[in-house]
Each structure stands twice: as C-alpha cells, then as structure tokens.
Task: structure prediction
Amino acid sequence: MNQNINRQQVERVAHLSRLDLTEKELELFSGQLAAVVEYIQKLNELKTNGVEPLAHCLPVHNVFRNDAVKPSLATEDALANAPDRTDDFFKVPRILDDSSGA
Amino acid sequence: MAAKVDYKVIVGLEIHVHLATRTKMFCGCELVYGGSPNSRVCPVCLGMPGSLPVMNKQAYEFAVLTAMALNCEIARFTKWDRKGYYYPDLPKNYQISQYDLPLSHDGFIEIPLEDGSIKRVGIIRAHLEEDAGKNTHELGNFSAVDLNRAGAPLLEIVTAPDMNSASEVRQMAQELQRIVRYLGISEADMQKGHMRFEPNVNLHINKDGQTYKTAICEIKNLNSFRAIERSVEYEVHRQLDEFLETGRTMQIGNKRTYGWDDVNQTTVLQREKEEAHDYRYFPEPDLVPVEMDEAWFEQIKSRLGELPLQKQKRFVGEYGLSNYDASVLTADKATAEYFEKVVQAGADAKRTCNLITQTGQKLANQNNTTVDKLGISPQNLAKLAQMADKGQISATAAAQIFEKMSQQNADPEQIAKADNLLQNSDAGAIEAIVDQVLAENVDAVQEIVSKGKKAGKAQGFLMGQVIQKSKGQANPKVVAEILSRKLAQISS
Result:
C-alpha cells in the first residue's frame, strides 16, 4: 500500500483546516508529510490479521462524574483571553455560509 | 401548478433532544435556560488547552434509557469520536460525538395515527454528542457568541425514511415528545430548542411508467409541531412543482438545505451541498470507552416504566375508553396517573375522563399547570364523579363544583349544598311539581294529547316549566320520565 502524500492532498487538508498556504509552503509540507507517512508505513509490516481494532490505548473504561454542578468561571475571566468582545459575548468575524449548530 | 401525478412522499428525521441533566456533558457547568451570556462556561467547554472532559453519568444513562424506549439495540461497548467543526460556537474546533460505535442502533418507534392505526418508524441509531453554543448575527460584519449551551448533552436520533406524509412526521414528533417526557429525560419544549427536528424530504414520482426521485432536501429551523407539518407540506409541493418544471432529479451531491420561514410560511434555500462533508472523524483520545454489563443494563431498564402508547392501549382495554379519550388522558403522564387514582377511588372511568378532559384541563391550562396539580384529591374528584352519576348534580353543576374544588380542596357535597347545586331526584316531590304544571298549562297538554303540530315544542315547554319551578334543582332525567308517564296516562 503506497500512500505517499501528494500535493493535492495537502491542498485539501489545508483547505479543511482553513489554512492559507503559499506555493512554497505547499511544496515544503508535501515533502515533509510524505516523509512522515512513509515512516509510519513501517507499521504495515506487522501482521494484524485477526487483531481487534483498538478503540483506546488505555486499558480503562467507564470513567464518569456525577451530575453535580461545579462553579463556572466568572464571565470576565472567561472573556479575558478573547481577542474581542461585545458586552458579555465573544465577538468574532461574521460567519459566512453558516452551517453551525451541532 | 402541479398536474395530476402519482407520487410518494419519503421523509426521514434527524432529531436532537436536549437531555435534562443539571450539568453539561463533560464539565460541571450548570445548564440554565436564559442565563446571562457566557456565565456558565469553564476551561473544558471553552476548549482551553490542557483541559480534559469527563463524562456525565446521568447523561449517558438518560441516553440509554431513551434508546431502550425506542426499542434499540444497546451497545455493550461504545466510544467517543471527534468530528471536525469550524464554527466559533464550539471553540475546541471539534465536536465530541459518536461515529462508528454509537451507544444504540436499530430500533423503532410506534406512532398512533389520527385514524387509530399504528405506524412503525425505524430508528437507525441514537447517540450522544455535545451541543454548540449560540451565534447571533446582528452585528454587521461580526457575530456575537454565547457559549452557555456549548457542551450541553444532546441525544441525536436518526430515523429511517419511513414517514410518508407531513402529518405522519408531525405525529412522530409529538409521540417522541410524549415518550421523552414520560421518561423524564428532557423537558422537550420545542420553542426553547429542547427538541430540534430536521426532516429530510424527497419524492418518488411515477411518470410515464418510470419512477423519478427528487433531490433530498433537509429542512431546518422548525420550532413548533405546526411548523414541522407545514414545512414538509410546502416542501412536497415545491419539489413536485420543480420536478414538473425542470425534470430535475436526485444526483450525487445535490442534497440541499432549506430553512423554514415561519412568517412567510415558506422554505428558503440555505445551502447546496456540492460535495459530501468531510468531518474527519477520529477516536477521541481524551475519553475512555464505555462498557455496559448486564447489571447496569438491567438497572437502567428497570426505570423504563409503562410507555405512553402502552398506557393508551391499556386505558382503552381496561377502562373501555375511546382511543381518542385515552390519547388525551395519556398525553401527559401525571394526568394519566391522576385519572387512574380517581378511578381507583371508586369513580366511573368514562365520567372521570369527561370531568378531567373537559373541565379539568381547561382549569389546568388557565393555571398553567396539569390537572393533578389543581389541588383536588383523587378521593374528592371521585366523589364528584359519583354525585354526577347518581344524578345528584347536573353536568353544569359538576363543572362549577370542580372549579370551586380547585380553589379549596373541599368535599364536593359540601360545596353543592352551600351553593344550592344539589339536584332533586326525589320522585314524589317532582311529581307534585309536574302535576301542578300540567294543571296550569291545559293548552299545552291538549296539544300533546291531540298529537298536534307543536306537540314536541309543547312538551319541551312543560319540561322547562317544571325545572323552573324547582329552581333548577330537579333532575331533568327524572322530570322527563315522570312527565312522559303522566302525559301517557292523560292520553289513554
């Protein structure tokens, strides 16, 4: 399985992450990422037939907390690092093509 | 406009239900509707580096309980995934959700339709995820973000495309609301956004011996059951018209999203998906998987209780109520339970049903509450029902006494006495009045006896006279009986 990262894939991933890359950067990252992927592909040498996929690397499950209220941050503290605010809201550039909402 | 064409409406729903936990899904911030902006946020839900989410056990159990009520397979092993997300109302830049191992799948919901039949709609999956905050767009080139809701637990339910009309979609939504309220897992108030329904609508159109499928449209922005029904109706007509005009059909990637404009009662195109979204799911490393053993499974299952449709069917079978009456009584769990307590206290079921659904619910609505919280003990309401059954009070008086009882949970008999509402069913006393009325109204009697044109009217007049003379207290049933008997005697 040869999955060397090509330039097109880097462009796509950059777009998904809303990163604006220059020609030079695209060139640089394509090479770097290809090297990383090639290195990782060493793992393909392992025989994994019949091995269950691992959902999590820790041998731990069912870590819960009770539904109990804890103090939140003061609004001033919550907004302290915000680049901009309006009243008690975070102020951000207008959202174009709004597909927000979970 | 649409010519006569044969078509089938196909609708599936994506549903989000807010779980009524006290705190968010992964942190202890309180969930408050209408709190001041950014007053319920912490490093976890603000997505600050170094913070770690911890799962709310109540949210998980609420989700499993609902999935059980929806007849789903409950996963014994489930995990969390990150879903790429680029909007500022979820500042981590991803949403914690479930991708390939949801906590439940493959269930169904049974919906009582208006014609009395039951419709089964498949549930593809139900999983937990976190809600986003709120963006407001009233600042020109800027948006204001409130993160109080960010991280609130949401149950996402995806149905199969099994609904075939706008009214079925609305009834499905109402039944789901009834179920989650019975379970107590959500307030399920659509106006407050506790329940969000997104119908996916398209048509299968038969034309010239061929079936054409229109492009699937998703409708957002629905905040009432009425809006759900109207928007699907609108979309059906819009798609039909569009197909007839343009012949446009479903293609890969031409799914569209419409928003419902409640003011103009139309759907408005929001976005056209040219390519499938790449959410880049990957396992959430900050949360460990959940495993459910038999003991925990049974413990949650024991909280299921009787579900609304089961209760409705039982009310029909056990109390001989009509399907309609049973559905009205079981719309709200507390009301249904109150009804049963009154019947257990010795009242007739049908009479109790009438008292509750007619007078009781009117009073409850006026007071913005439910019938069980009107302050009337089941024993007292049972007594009122019995008094009405025995003819001691008229139906009108029963309603009056009901209202008084809600102000002062007093014995209905005392109220009836105090307000002079007791009906006279004493045959002897009524007979005396009847005799007197007959003697005073010879003309009317003559009309009846000679079977004149106005015989019916005359009898009604005599009836009224008797009731009037008794100051409205004579039991009309008894009066009618005696009057008929006496008139028959005169005629023979």
Observations:
- Residues 2-296 of chain B form one domain.
- Chain B touches chain A through 64 residues (CB under 8 Å).
- The mean pLDDT of chain B is 91.
